[in-house]
Specification:
Layout (H helix, E strand, L loop, with lengths): L11 H17 L4 E4 L2 H8 L11 E5 L6 E5 L3 H7 L7 E4 L11 H11 L7 E3 L6 H10 L5 E3 L3 H6 L4 H24 L6 H14 L13 E4 L20 E6 L2 E2 L2 E2 L2 E6 L5 H20 L6 H14 L10 E4 L2 E7 L13 E5 L2 E4 L2 E3 L2 E7 L2 E4 L8 E2 L1
Parallel strand pairs: 1-5, 3-4, 5-6, 11-19
Antiparallel strand pairs: 1-2, 2-3, 7-8, 8-11, 9-10, 12-13, 12-14, 14-17, 15-16, 17-18
Helix pairs in contact: 7-8, 9-10
Length: about 400
């Protein structure tokens, strides 16, 4: 019996549109085949979100074929058949013998496939910066008769400009993010264990919002006193104490797409220092959103925030945000001074204004937004408050 397909987040025409854009870039770079190995780029071009990227795998995009071919570990083949828009005949599995093998691995299977079907003689593109050096060398030596081109950014830059269908998914993810923060406001209390609060918040992120469930659990950071100067640690076994501060970063997920959100909570009256920092950050956030309009640059957005924050007596030494979408961070543009990337409609960013000032002081607030002609349009609806419980 044929395996039924999982419901696709996008119609086939959307994936073919993306592939057409990628193939145009391939022609520009004069390559015949592109081997896509990063999980987020594979998701973008196929709909695949299974967590199999720890083993060698590759989506083979050829100028000669309408659909790509996916080569993966045998046990992961069924997930690809379920999730990808491509025909099941274009999912090829390599044997378990290539796992934990010191001489051959799944990349050998990918290289052999390319030449077995008569492709690659006019140039092969690989995402070199995301591959081990030994794997890059394997492509160069095994495909000595072909020109190997580093195409690390080929798909990433294309996916930086979102379609309206992608924007719709990010809005759905944002509604889930809002629900998660509102749940945090309900469950964070003195004498509650951090893991108990985290469990309820994460459950909300899975349950979803507006009838749309979360389809994955993204990175989740809950940093409570005395760890508020940290940014990327999880909950601990501790109990929230009266007077504690909690910095929370989370995101809903819809078919791989995220809309991150950060907020600060205080169990009791916050210090005047944190209150003033909050006021300065909100003012800077609003200035940054106003600057994030079509035709300006990432640097302009950062300057707007940094200038406003300094007027309130504070500085932020880390960047103000980054491109966001599939699997959270996208490795393209950064909201930092000096990044001259020109903003275009439907580029999406996490305006990440976490500010870790010293070992005892930290504060977070953020918005995920899309670029419009009028400025940055936030996806989330949560008030820009310092939540006092």
């Amino acid at each position: 019996m044929a395996m039924p397909k999982a419901s696709q987040p996008f119609p086939r025409s959307e994936y073919l549109r993306r592939l057409t854009a990628v193939k145009s870039e391939m022609k520009r770079r004069e390559i015949e085949v592109l081997v896509v190995t990063t999980p987020a780029n594979i998701t973008y071009l196929s709909g695949y979100t299974s967590k199999s990227g720890y083993a060698p795998q590759g989506l083979i995009v050829s100028l000669a074929d309408e659909e790509p071919t996916f080569i993966t570990r045998r046990m992961d083949g069924p997930a690809a058949i379920h999730q990808m828009f491509i025909d099941r005949g274009n999912v090829i599995s390599y044997p378990e013998a290539l796992i934990a093998n010191s001489e051959r691995d799944g990349y050998d299977a990918i290289i052999e496939f390319i030449f077995d079907v008569g492709l690659g003689h006019k140039g092969i593109g690989i995402e070199a910066k995301f591959l081990p050096a030994s794997t890059v060398e394997k492509f160069k030596s095994c495909a000595a008769q072909a020109r190997i081109v580093d195409c690390t950014d080929a798909v990433s830059w294309i996916r930086g400009l979102k379609s309206d269908l992608e924007i719709a998914l990010m809005r759905e993810a944002a509604a889930i993010s809002d629900a998660g923060m509102l749940k945090a406001n309900d469950v964070i209390r003195a004498d509650v264990r951090e893991p108990d609060a985290a469990a309820e918040i994460i459950a909300t992120l899975v349950h979803g919002a507006n009838g749309k469930p979360g389809t994955d659990v993204a990175s989740f950071y809950l940093c409570a006193t005395p760890r508020i100067s940290t940014c990327h640690i999880r909950w601990t076994e501790d109990v929230f104490q009266k007077g504690s501060q909690i910095n929370l970063e989370l995101s809903g997920v819809r078919h791989g797409y995220t809309s991150p959100l950060m907020r600060t909570f205080s169990l009791g009256k916050p210090s005047d220092h944190i209150r003033r920092l909050h006021e300065g950050e909100v003012a800077g956030l609003e200035a940054a959103l106003a600057a994030a309009k079509t035709g300006t640059t990432c640097s302009d957005v950062a300057v707007a925030f940094n200038t406003t924050l300094k007027k309130h007596g504070f500085e932020k030494t880390s960047r103000c945000g980054y491109a966001v979408g599939i699997d959270w961070t996208e490795p393209t543009a950064s909201l930092k001074e000096g990044d001259v990337t020109v903003l275009k409609p439907n580029m999406t960013f996490h305006l990440m204004l976490g500010n870790w000032i010293d070992e005892d002081v930290g504060y977070v607030i953020s918005e995920t937004f899309r670029v419009t002609d009028a400025g940055g349009e936030p996806f989330t609806k949560l008030p820009r408050e310092l939540f006092v419980i």
